[in-house]
Amino acid sequence: MTIEINKAGFMTTIQDGGRPGYAHMGIPGSGFMDQDAAKVANKMVGNADHAPLLEVAVAGIGLTIHGDCTLAVVGAQAQVLVNQQNKDTTECIELSQGDQLDIKPLTGGMWTYLAFAGGLVADEILGSCSTLPLARLGGHEGRRIQKGDKLRLISPATVKGHSKPKHKQRPHNTIHSLAANRGPEFDLFTAKAQQDITRQAFIMTKHISRQGMKITGSELLLKNKVDMNSCGLVPGSLQVTPGVEYIITHRDSQTTGGYPRIIVLARQSLNQLAQIRPGEKLYFYWV
Predict the structure, then answer these.
(1) Which of 64, 106, 245, 257 has its CA 20 to 30 A from that of 152?
(2) pLDDT, tens digit, for every residue of 256-270?
């Protein structure tokens, strides 16, 4: 059975639970941007938590189904159509030969997940099928999904599936609170900067990718000028660059960087961070 891509969007990839353990080789962990949403999608159709699925960015996607299967859609809010008819995503969706599935541009959040019962066929590299386009690793030919691609399922199945849990049916928030730890260079910042990091609102910019995102806020000053060597980075590191625009790393982040890290987000906050849209406010609080 195949799934033909009619509209791919601009950042659709195959992702799974990621490939941790290779940062010393310069390879990021990758994996689902919103791990919670992706795991729920897999559970709804009976797949393993970390099974490969389609991760769709804000522009949406269009598919034609060549066979019978069951699908779950979880993550950012969007209008979902099958043969131009609205579908309720609180339950699994049954698809038949020739059906056309369209997910319109996402309206609440940044990433949504399409899990197919039986799982997607994908290239496994270093123990993971997650796509890392910069290195052409994993997924479908190591790249983003394109119009005209034909994807296959491992074991196509129609299943009753499970309902979407209540916490994944809530409306998207536009103000966000993210748990954080002190970063390795926290003590190099002025007392005012150390206070401001948890006392002010930051704003998400339009610069968002799987590598990270830029946010704006008041200027966070160092006590003295610092010449840093490149240091290790993990997802959720807030790098303070000159000016008032800062970088938070995410799943496909480079593994080293040369800017001071004032905070590092708690792991559970990465899922929330992934769904913040441009213009929305975010606050940090100490774990």
Answers:
(1) 106
(2) 999 999 999 999 999
